[in-house]
Write a sequence for this structure.
C-alpha cells in the first residue's frame, strides 16, 4: 500500500486548535488570491537597516518568480464555464449563477490563447522591482557594472527578465548586461525532488484539500436551482475560487471581482484548504519536504559559486535569475526565511506559519546583498524576501549585527543542508 494511504489516515483527526475561517480571514487580505496574489509591493521595506560601520554593498544575488500571469491551463477557465453552460441549457441556474456565467464568458474570452502568459501587471511588477534595486544599491548598479541575467525558457520568465533588464538599462545606460534563456540552466528548475515523490505527494495533497474544504452546499445552492449530481462539487468550488484569485493578476474591466461567489467565511475556508494542499505538494512538509527541498541543491550551488566568484574577482556586480514558484519555495525554506521554513504534518494549523500567498506571490523575489569593508576580511550579507529585510531562523546563523550575517556562516549552513 502506498505511503500516501498511510499518511492520509491522520488527516481525519482534527484538533480543537485548528484555525477557524474567521481566524484565516484576519490574515493579510492577499489570502483570497492564493498562489496568484499580485506582488505586494506596498509591504516592502522603504527604509533599510544601516550596514555596520565601514561596510558598503558590492554584489547582489537574486532569484525571482515570474510576474502576474493568466492561468497556466485553459482547463482552469473551461471547467467551471462548461458546467455553467450546461446548467443554463437545462434551466438550472439561479440569477447569481447567470451572473457568474456571464462573467466567466468574459474571463475565458480574455484568457483565450494567453494561458500561462505574463500579464501587463506582471511586466510592471518586475520593472518596478528592478527600479527599486537600482535606487537602493547605487554602489552595485554603477557605471559600467556587469549584470548576468538568466531565465527558464518559459515565456513569462523571459519577459519578466526582459522587463527588469529594460529598466536597469534605462537607469544605468552604461551597464553591461548579459541575458540568457536556455535549457542548459537546469539549476533554475527545482523539479527533481518533487518529481521523485510526485505521485505520493499529490495523492496526499489532494486528499488533504478535499478533507479540509468548508461546507460548499450553500455556495452550490446560490448558483444552481437543482442539485448537480453529474459534477464534482468540490472541484467546481475550487476552480471557482481560483477564478476569483486570478483576477488580481489579470484584471478584466468588465469583471472587477468574483467576491459575490463566496461569503468571507467560505472564501477563507477555501483558502485554508488550498493552502494546505500547496504546502503538502511543494512546501517543506514533514512527509515530503526534505526530498522536495533537495531539488533546490543545484540552484544553491550556483548561488554559492557565483557569489564566491564575485567576491574574489569583483567582475560581476549582480546575478539575476527568473524562474517559478517551485524554485522560490524551497530556496526560501533552505535559507531559513521564517515565513517559509516551517516543517510540520499538523495540517490543521499550517496556515498559522506558512501561507502560499506570502511565500511566493506573483513576482516573489529573494535578494542576497553582499557587503565588504576595507577594514575587515569578513564579507557580510543581508537577505530580503519580497524586498523586506529578514531575520533568519536561529538555526541558520547568528547575525553579526541586526540583519547582517557573515557570508561564511550562511554558506556553511547551505552546504550542511546539502549533505
Amino acid at each position: 500500500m502506498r505511503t500516501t494511504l498511510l499518511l492520509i489516515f491522520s488527516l481525519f483527526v482534527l484538533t480543537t486548535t485548528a484555525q477557524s475561517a474567521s481566524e484565516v480571514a484576519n490574515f493579510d487580505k492577499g489570502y483570497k488570491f492564493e498562489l496568484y496574489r499580485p506582488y505586494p509591493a506596498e509591504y516592502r521595506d522603504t527604509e533599510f537597516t544601516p550596514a555596520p560601520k565601514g561596510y558598503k554593498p558590492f554584489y547582489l544575488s537574486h532569484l525571482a518568480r515570474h510576474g502576474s500571469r493568466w492561468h497556466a491551463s485553459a482547463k482552469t477557465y473551461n471547467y467551471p464555464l462548461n458546467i455553467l453552460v450546461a446548467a443554463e441549457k437545462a434551466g438550472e441556474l439561479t440569477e447569481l449563477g447567470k451572473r457568474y456565467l456571464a462573467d466567466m464568458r468574459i474571463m475565458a474570452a480574455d484568457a483565450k490563447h494567453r494561458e500561462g502568459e505574463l500579464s501587463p501587471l506582471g511586466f510592471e511588477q518586475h520593472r518596478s522591482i528592478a527600479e527599486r534595486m537600482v535606487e537602493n544599491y547605487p554602489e552595485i548598479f554603477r557605471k559600467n557594472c556587469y549584470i548576468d541575467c538568466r531565465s527558464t525558457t518559459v515565456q513569462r520568465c523571459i519577459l519578466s527578465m526582459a522587463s527588469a533588464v529594460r529598466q536597469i538599462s534605462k537607469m544605468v545606460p552604461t551597464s553591461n548586461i548579459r541575458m540568457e534563456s536556455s535549457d542548459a540552466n537546469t539549476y533554475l528548475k527545482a523539479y527533481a525532488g518533487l518529481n521523485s515523490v510526485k505521485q505520493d505527494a499529490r495523492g496526499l495533497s489532494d486528499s488533504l484539500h478535499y478533507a479540509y474544504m468548508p461546507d460548499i452546499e450553500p455556495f452550490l445552492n446560490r448558483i444552481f436551482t437543482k442539485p448537480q449530481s453529474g459534477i464534482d462539487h468540490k472541484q467546481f468550488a475550487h476552480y471557482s475560487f481560483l477564478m476569483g484569485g486570478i483576477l488580481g493578476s489579470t484584471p478584466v474591466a468588465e469583471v472587477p471581482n468574483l467576491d459575490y461567489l463566496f461569503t468571507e467565511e467560505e472564501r477563507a475556508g477555501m483558502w485554508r484548504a488550498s493552502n494546505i494542499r500547496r504546502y503538502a505538494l511543494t512546501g517543506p512538509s514533514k512527509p515530503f519536504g526534505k526530498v522536495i527541498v533537495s531539488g533546490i541543491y543545484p540552484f544553491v550551488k550556483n548561488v554559492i559559486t557565483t557569489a564566491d566568484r564575485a567576491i574574489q574577482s569583483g567582475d560581476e556586480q549582480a546575478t539575476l535569475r527568473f524562474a517559478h514558484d517551485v524554485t522560490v519555495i524551497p530556496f526560501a525554506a533552505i535559507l531559513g526565511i521564517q515565513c517559509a521554513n516551517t516543517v510540520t504534518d499538523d495540517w490543521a494549523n499550517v496556515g498559522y506559519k506558512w501561507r502560499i500567498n506570502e511565500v511566493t506571490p506573483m513576482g516573489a523575489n529573494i535578494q542576497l546583498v553582499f557587503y565588504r569593508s576595507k577594514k575587515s576580511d569578513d564579507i557580510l550579507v543581508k537577505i530580503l524576501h519580497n524586498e523586506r529585510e529578514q531575520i533568519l531562523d536561529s538555526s541558520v546563523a547568528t547575525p553579526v549585527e541586526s540583519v547582517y550575517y557573515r557570508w561564511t556562516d550562511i554558506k556553511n549552513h547551505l552546504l550542511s543542508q546539502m549533505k
Summary: The first helix runs from residue 3 to 8. The chain has a mean pLDDT of 93. The radius of gyration is 22 Å. Residues 24-40+51-417 form a domain with the Rossmann fold fold (CATH 3.40.50.1240).
